[in-house]
Amino acid sequence: MPTKTLRIPTADGQADAFAAFPDHSERHPGVLMYADGFGIRPVLREMARELAGHGYYVLVPNSFYRHGPAPLFELPEYIGEQVRPAVFAQLMPLIEAHTAERVLSDADAYLRFLTSQPEVGAGPVAVTGYCIGGLYAMRTAAARPDQVAAVAAFHGPVGVDGPDLFSKLTAQVHLGHAEGDMTPEALGELNQALDAAGVGYTSEIYPGTIHGFTMSDTDAFSASGLKRHWDRLLPLLDRTLANS
Fold first, then answer.
1. Which helix or strand (DSSP H or E) is residue 244 part of?
2. CB atoms near residue 30 (< 10 Å)
3. Residue 10 domain boundaries
4. Does the N terminus or the C terminus of the chain have fewer Cβ atoms within 10 A?
5. Which residues, 6 or more positions from 1, have their beta carbon under 8 angstroms from its beta carbon?
């Protein structure tokens, strides 16, 4: 699986990024993948390669490039309960500094770069994201309805911006919530807001999961949750990007 380390021109500099794509000369649909807060690291590169193996050009930007290239600080190989507080102490200022305005400015740059790559076909793209990256994915899809045909967010705070964001969505949506993050009552309220906005979506709690369940380098990992994620994500992309 070919991979590249790239630099994406943005309004505020250059974002470093990782890309994976199939090993043949055809053009492929593009997918913008937002990492969780821990950023680009081996597990994210592996997920990008796996998705690329299904026929997609996958671009993973460093959302926090304004503070330096990834990794911004040294991460342990395994992010367990003992190290998590120290990691979050370093991470939270970066997340707080990455305002909605910055997310949307960067999204324009990422999508412009993605769709200009010679390996990427014409047509709509998809956006997916994990944890805080799920919120970034939803904001990107809402801001660029002309370009984004599908958006998927996993264990992400997707309701933070409220129904105003949902009303701008034209993409097909899948939301995979951690059981530890979302009560059935909260899920019902979220889904009612999506219904009211006329969004085409699936939104469900993944059984037996806690926040971060897709990430195999953390103690939140759930093998069944990750499998369910692929079982939902791949058909969504196939339906919406098949003609790209």
1. none
2. 30
3. 3-242
4. N
5. 20, 21, 22, 23, 49, 52, 53
